[in-house]
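Z., the sequence and structure:
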Amino acid sequence: LPSGKVSRVKGIDTFSGEREEAFAPESVTLRLEHEIDCSRGDMIVHPGNRPRVGRSFDAHVVWLHEKPLDPEKSYFLKHTTQSIRMQVSKVHHRIELTTLKEEAAETLQLNDIGLLSITTHRPTHHDAYHKNRVTGAFIIVDSLTNATVGAGMILPQDDQEQDIEDALKEARAGSGLENKTQVSPRERRERLGQTGVTVWLSGLPGSGKVNVAYVLERKLFDLGHAAHVLAPEGDPLSAIAVATRGLTDAGIITICALPAKTRAERAQVRERVGKERFVEVFVDTDPAISKERRPDGDQTGFEKPDQPDVTVNLDQLRVERAVSTIIDQLAQRGWVDLE
């Protein structure tokens, strides 16, 4: 495995000469009757006693690190002689050690034991731990620090023997991982010291929302945060929503002061970005003053927000004070740190 080619052992060689038989943990060289390219990680197995070939399995895992399991990031799974990138598909439960009862869990903490579903980047040749302690065991390694963070025992999958053709198809198939970022939101938060959020400034043309956006960007940057004003030219709202979500997913405080006159349009962006990561700021400047500032601005069709998260009046406040009000609101919600 994984080639599926069949051969026989022609000879067993050691430093002291040929042997009739050998046992683990002796170091020997096997000669086969056929020329087969075998490399580290491949297996030679008896046709009647094959391991299971697959990219997914359930396992009991003991978590060994102070940093808890992050189901949204990828790790390395060290199984026999191979290191394979893996992801946790599901945390089924953890075991309460004092009562041995199963408890619902979303992660595992230090010394926790839990049942996980694991998906690997390429197929492994594995057995249930009770059947084979070598091919049924593995360790989990952090992909950034190379620290060993977990150890696991593979559970039986089903009693039905896997057809050899199905096993070979599985071995020859491509990656079984969902195509997604290998950097989790938790890792981004730890690296950047912040979580991504969208600050959407709505208001009439000439209300001063663009000026507020750039002053807010500068102030957040001075406070040590990664912030960016998204200022596309002439792009449709759907494209702006995609770009806004991308920046927010990357952990950036994304500031937008773009035309979105109706509540429905702004709701579209809020839904795309995520309601919990969207802060709407209404720049409520007197329409007459806004018209004076932007005589060419089209004020028709603008709908005031029903329940904005923050309201600032630039006909009553200086820009710096308005920005401070916004930052105070972001700090209260945990998006920025003022210390």
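The longest strand covers residues 82-96. The longest helix spans residues 209-222.

Let me know what you think.
H.
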